[in-house]
Write a structure and sequence with these properties.
Elements (H helix, E strand, L loop, with lengths): L12 E4 L7 H7 L5 E5 L1 H5 L4 H9 L5 E3 L8 H13 L4 E6 L1 H16 L8 E2 L9 E5 L11 E5 L6 E5 L7 E4 L9 H20 L5 H15 L2 H6 L4 H21 L3 H13 L3 H16 L4 H10 L9 H18 L16 H8 L3 H6 L6 H13 L5
Parallel strand pairs: 1-9, 2-3, 2-4, 4-6, 5-8, 6-9
Antiparallel strand pairs: 7-8
Length: about 400
Amino acid sequence: MTVSTFTITQPTQIHFGTGIITTLPSIIDDLGGTKPLVVMDPGLVKANQDKPVTKPLTAAGIDFILYDKVDPEPGLRLADQGTELAKDNGCDCVVGVGGGSAMDVAKAIAILLTNGGQAVDYIGLGKIKKAGVPKIMVPTSAGTGAEVTFTAVFINEETGSKAGMNGDPLYPEAAVLDPTLTLSLPPHVTAATGIDAMTHALEAYTSVQAHPISEMYSLEAINVIVHNIRDAYADGRNLKARSNMLLGSLLGGKALAIAGVGLVHAMAYPLGGMFGISHGLANAVLLPYVTEFNLIGNLKKHALLAELFGVDRKELSLRDAAAELVEELHLLNSDLNIPATLEELHIAADKIEEMAEIALTVARPVENNPRQPSKEDVMAIYEYAMTGREDF
């Protein structure tokens, strides 16, 4: 094995386990926080699912401010507004509770509180100069892995484009992963977020930036997710499956933070920015089609991934074994009732060229991809994904 040169930053303290959310007050105290801004998905508040998080804070006598103005595809203004709320109330730490959107908004607010300016000022790589206030992430879905990444993704309301803040200061100081917080997830959310987590791991594994450490996280994430996602989807009360899915999401987040993601993510961004398709669902629908395009970029890795899905390679060529991965991804989406085509998401076919142009501006994921695409390639993948009736 040839080991490439690499550098890894993994600063997040991870607290994982059933019922561990009750330790949130002590974690805040350990980080020097006294008055947190709690950024929470509004759906949790509406469903009365906020209590497992807020009750321990109240019991510990911790005064907190709740900010639940988070959209599924958050705009930059949400980070700016949350920052003003935190400043006005003297908040000295931030707790992000929910899916990737809530955690991304929370991370951005923590940075803005110390760096100043507006969220738009930090879109890109390496623009954050100071550490933020302490930030603690509490995922309530098993999907984004945002609790251990250095990225916060937003829609720019002025341009309609989707882009991210990126930089080591965005790494959360702590993450609290309690599987009981995921038990109420409806099946369709379990499916989309679960495939999102798988996409992170798969793209990180085949990324040109991958190395032995990232591959370790990727392979274990995929293995765990493959063997648990159907169980979690079929019966949301299955605590073992929920725990494993949360672990798989965490490992996928670790992998993507190290090796990055690829073309699936770049192509998913326009679906969110232009059509409001949730990030997880966009990734899930595109994953089999982009994987098919990518196969020849690394047949060996794709064939190995097929084995994790249960494919018997003994009688198959390397190319045929790799191709079986695509079939397994389609089958998994079908079992989880995820739409098979973009047509089912009501994506306008006459926007394909515009979507392709936007996707290719998402530079880092495109550069990470194992097969470098042209504009014509990206358009062809979108066209294929529209109906599922085309091939490479």
